[in-house]
Amino acid sequence: MTATDSTGLRPRLARKRAGRRGDLVFRWVAQLSGILILVLIVAIAAFLLDRAVPAFRHAGLRFFTERGWSPDADHPRFGIEALAFGTVVSSICALVLAVPVALGSALFLTEVAPPRIGRWTGYLVDLLAAVPSVVYGLWGIYYLVPRLNPVERWLDQRIGFVALFHSRSATYGRSLFAASVVLAIMILPIIAAIAREVFRQVPSEAREAALALGATRWETIRISVLPYSRGGIVGAMMLGLGRALGETIAVALVLASVFKVDLHIFEPGGNTIAANIATKFGEAGASGREALIASGLVLFAITLVVNVVARGVVYRTGLAAEGRP
To answer: What angle do CA 289, 292, 293 make, to 5 degrees?
Structure first.
């Protein structure tokens, strides 16, 4: 080996060693970050469980079937049946309202609109996520709720034979439906932003192949874009659902705090776990705080289950797309 060869070899070896050290550092940082997230989740769950045990001991199984909320009374009675019902119903209704609009806007901005218009319009849609929750709540109670009354009345008159769209007292206002509309607007930018990125990841060859076979624009979207993006769409929907389940201030302002389990979502009343915690925690006594933390533990479990199920669906969808069982 000549002197020239050895001189050129040393810098290459040094760069290789530096690259290995960089990979090692990155590996350790990534592992520590993952472990830290798991530790935080376990720590939160342990804290909630420790503080919630007295409430579970006092209420027993009635905690899951009781509809009232008076943990600081002389004869305490409290439970999350009505709260869990309001949380799940309002979140699902919000998802039903938001998903078609979010996916439609994402498809328009990525598949139909010119690139410059699609990019700037996407920024405007994303700005909805920057609006504080309290602003949505104030807008909902003072502007949206009065203007939803004619819509609710019209739906009641046309399809009131369905319990979901019927008001037995012909009264409308601060209802689960109004809260669902506010939640739908709040989760729309999250779903739309993720869906746009997923649609942009579809290989251009798939679109070109469909067009070359004579497919229309809609047929190209249906046979090339949507099947490839199914897993990402499910993930976007579940993230939006998680945001809706945990929303607090906006729901607390829009809903009339009435503990009830009723599928007539146009009638005033209803409550959610997160909104109940926000409105009751400041004035609660020791027993009341324990009960509220217990309800928070249930909400934590619900959101965790939703995310695990979503991850499983995304994984199975990915396997199906790859043709594996």
So the answer is: 85
CATH number at residue 99: 1.10.3720.10
- CB count in 10 Å sphere of residue 120: 11
On the CB side of 306, how many CA atoms lie within 13 Å of its CA? 22
Question: At 70, which helix (H) or strand (E)?
Answer: strand 69-70
- Residues 37 and 87 grouped into a single domain: no
Is the same domain home to 41 and 180? no
Reported as a single tens digit per residue, the pLDDT across 200-235 is 888 888 888 888 888 778 888 888 888 888 888 888
Residue 67, domain member (yes or no): no
End-to-end CA distance of the chain: 55
Q: Are 183 and 247 in contact (CB under 8 A)?
A: yes
Domain that holds residue 39: 3-61
Can you give the pTM of this predicted structure? 0.84
